[in-house]
Every structure is written in C-alpha cells, then in structure tokens.
C-alpha cells in the first residue's frame, strides 16, 4: 500500500510540474508568431533543430532564398574563423541566407529524418539541401551509436518526416526500423506514426508532461534571433582569390607550433605526443561501416523521393596524422572510392575535397574543416543556391570527381574546389563513435 501511495504521489508531482510548465510556456501559435517576427538565425538553438515546423515558419517569413547546411561537429565550433559558414554568410550578403544545423553525432540517419521533416514543413522551398559527410561516421562498424543518435533524435522531426506524403511506405519503414534499432522505444514510434485515438491521447499526455519545457526552450531560441539587414540587389561576387590568401594567412597564424597545419591548442592537447612520421605497419583499416553506408543511401533515397537536390561534401582528413593510425592512405582510398561510388549510383552532385588530405589549412585539426576548406565549400554553396554569384563551372558531379588526384586541375573539379578561405581556432567534438576509435588508435600507436 505504501508503495502504491508513493507511486501515486510521484505521478501527481510529475503532472503538477508538467502542468506548471505547460501553463507558463508560450502556446504553439505564439511560437509561430515569434518565428515569423525573428526569421533569421544562421545557427539556431539546439531546440529549434528539432522543430522543423518553426524552421519552416522562419524560412517562409524571410522573403528570400534560405539554404540549409547539415553536418556534424565542424558546424558546432565557434565562428571565430572568418570563413566558417555561420560567420561568412552572416557578414557577407550573397543573395541568400544560410542556416547551419548539426553537431557531433548527427549522422546520415538523422539527416534523412531532418530532410523529410523540413520538406514536410515547407522549410525547403528551393528543394535543395547541402550535407557534409563525416569520415569518422564510418569508422565504427555499427555506424551511428545509440547514444549519439538519441542525442540527435527529435520526436517532432520524426513525426513530420513520417507524415510526408512524398516518401514511400518502404522508405518510412526503413527509417522506423533503424530508429527503433538505435534505441527509440517501439511504443513511442507507434504513438508518433499512428493517427488512432489512443496514439493521439498518448501524444497529448506526453506533451502535457514535457511539452511546456520544450516550448520554453523554443521561445528562448527564437528570442535570440536577430534580423539581418539584407538587400537582394547588393550581391557582389566575393574575391575568392583574396579569400584564399586570407585563409592561408589565418592558418599560418594559428599553427605556429607544428608543421602539420593543426592549430596550436589542439596540437598541444591531443596530438603533440604522437609518433609523427612513423607510418602504421599493420594491416590497413578495412571495416568501414556498411551500416552507415546504408543510412547514407537512405538519406539519398529520401532526397530522391521528395525531388530534393542534395549537394554532398566529401571531407578530407589530415593525412600525416591518419597515416600513423590504421587509417592509412591505402585504407582511405578504399573508403573514398566506396563513398564516391555510392554518390555516383545516386547520381547526385558532390564537392570532393579528399585529394587534400596532405594539403595544409583545409582542416583546422586532424578532422574538422577550417580555413581553405571552408572557402571552397562557401563558394560551392554560392553556386549551389544561385544567389546571383556566377558559377564558372558546375559543382563536381557524379562520375566526374577524382578524389585520388593530387593536383588542382582534376577533370570535373569545380572552381569552388580550386579556391579557398579563412578561419582559425576552437575545439573539436569528434562525431559519434569516431572519438573513441581515434583516441583508441592514438593510444595504441
């Protein structure tokens, strides 16, 4: 009896706290009004990442082209680097606004759900999305870890994705299967995808208990938005050569204690004691995750079914560092070839930076984009989203990008891939299980 009373008291307390949040939090209508009043945020709050409906309101209220850049931990770093997209597209009017979404552990499956949800909520009127592919996603045989996925999972995004009539029943079933496999409760998945009275009641109860707190966080994120003054007729193509020179200067200034193009703080903290120049002598790593490749194909299938044009980015790594791990040049060439094959089969465009594994300042550390790398991507984004900036050549497309080449005149390589820009500083958060893999390899080396 005492146990039953305790359970009832705990339930009453939970409902009481939920009711307090629920009554104090802004309504859904109020949140939509806030989104329309403060539509611009190059780097929305984490709460807003999981609310495609409010992102849709922001985009539709902006009155001009808004592009999305999805990725992982490279987007979570501070925008002190002058070429980091969050800073670059805030300080430079290229005729469109860019919203960057993603953090460490946000991988292919999350991207598939997010794109389906954004499309359903009207956030992709241009039917375009850019996606940064993290090499570290594929280092764990199981792909995305349950811990990483649950950190990125949004019930609202999942439900909106499942509501999208453009997706086939087969694709939705594959997404549901993967979501459950990565730790989302099967009953929760059922409640989010079922339109029965019972499922509606379950969603209503869940919203009553925790929805108030969620709406409070959304309101805080929207309140932080500041409208940017944009003038569509003021678009001037950047001097990409000058930006490239600035990138080199910033990189040189940030990397003064090593010869590997790694910014000082990272080098001292993480890799100064590594056996540089001592190449790994064992068998090259060959277990690139088929599960993650499958999730990437699922992302591409979502784009195809919804008639969304993706711009994929193959990121480089620091070759000098990876060559002393199991991820040798031979191993990476195998990975890059497989990745290009998947993209070619899907017939999508991609920017291939894999040929820059040994070039300084394309990365800021051993795996996160920086300086020159961001300039190339910024230029590719300008070409991709139009915006009045001339595109001398099309973005590298399937069947043309040659990631094994070392020089800059690779057939099919874009003008964006031959230029670069600026940035420097800040820390890493390695995507998903890539962190454990890399740290473990470093200890064994």
TrEMBL record:
NCBIfam families: LTA_DltD. Keywords: Signal. Residues 1-19 form the signal peptide. It holds the Pfam family DltD. Residues 432-445 have a biased composition (Basic and acidic residues). The gene is dltD. This is D-alanyl-lipoteichoic acid biosynthesis protein DltD. Residues 395-445 are annotated as: Disordered. It comes from the Bacteria.
């Amino acid at each position: 009896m005492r146990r039953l009373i305790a359970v009832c008291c705990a339930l009453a307390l939970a409902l009481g706290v939920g009711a307090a949040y629920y009554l104090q939090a802004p309504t859904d209508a109020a949140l939509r009004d806030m989104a329309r009043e403060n539509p611009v945020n190059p780097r929305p709050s984490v709460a807003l990442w999981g609310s495609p409906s409010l992102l849709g309101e922001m985009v539709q209220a902006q009155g001009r082209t808004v592009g999305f850049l999805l990725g992982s931990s490279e987007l979570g770093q501070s925008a002190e680097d002058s070429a980091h997209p969050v800073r670059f597209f805030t300080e430079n009017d290229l005729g469109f606004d860019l919203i960057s979404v993603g953090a460490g552990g946000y991988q292919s499956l999350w991207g598939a759900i997010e794109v389906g949800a954004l499309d359903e909520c009207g956030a992709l009127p241009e039917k375009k999305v850019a996606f940064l592919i993290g090499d570290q996603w594929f280092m764990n045989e199981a792909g995305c870890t349950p811990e990483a996925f649950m950190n990125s999972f949004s019930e609202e995004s999942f439900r909106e994705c499942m509501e999208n009539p453009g997706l086939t029943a087969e694709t939705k079933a594959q997404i549901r299967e993967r979501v459950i496999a990565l730790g989302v409760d099967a009953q929760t998945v059922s409640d989010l995808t079922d339109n029965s009275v019972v499922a509606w009641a379950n969603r209503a109860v869940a919203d009553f208990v925790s929805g108030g707190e969620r709406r409070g966080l959304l309101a805080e994120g929207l309140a932080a938005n500041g409208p940017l003054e944009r003038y569509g007729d003021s678009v001037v193509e950047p001097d990409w050569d000058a930006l490239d020179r600035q990138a080199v200067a910033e990189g040189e200034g940030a990397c003064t204690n090593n010869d590997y193009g790694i910014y000082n703080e990272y080098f001292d903290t993480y890799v100064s004691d590594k056996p540089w120049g001592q190449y790994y002598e064992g068998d090259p790593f060959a277990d690139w995750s088929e599960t993650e490749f499958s999730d990437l194909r699922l992302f591409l299938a979502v784009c195809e079914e919804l008639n969304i044009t993706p711009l994929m980015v193959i990121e480089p790594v620091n070759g000098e560092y990876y060559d002393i791990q199991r991820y040798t040049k031979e191993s990476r060439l195998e990975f890059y070839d497989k990745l290009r094959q998947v993209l070619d089969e899907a017939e999508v465009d991609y920017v291939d930076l894999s040929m820059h594994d040994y070039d300084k300042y394309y990365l800021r550390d051993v795996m996160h984009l920086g300086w020159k790398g961001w300039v190339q991507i910024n230029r590719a984004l300008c070409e991709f989203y139009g915006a009045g900036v001339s595109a001398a050549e099309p973005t590298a497309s399937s069947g043309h990008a040659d990631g094994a080449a070392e020089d800059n005149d690779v057939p099919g390589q874009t003008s964006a891939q031959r230029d670069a820009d600026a940035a420097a500083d800040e820390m890493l958060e390695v995507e998903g299980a890539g962190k454990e893999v890399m740290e473990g390899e470093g200890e064994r080396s």
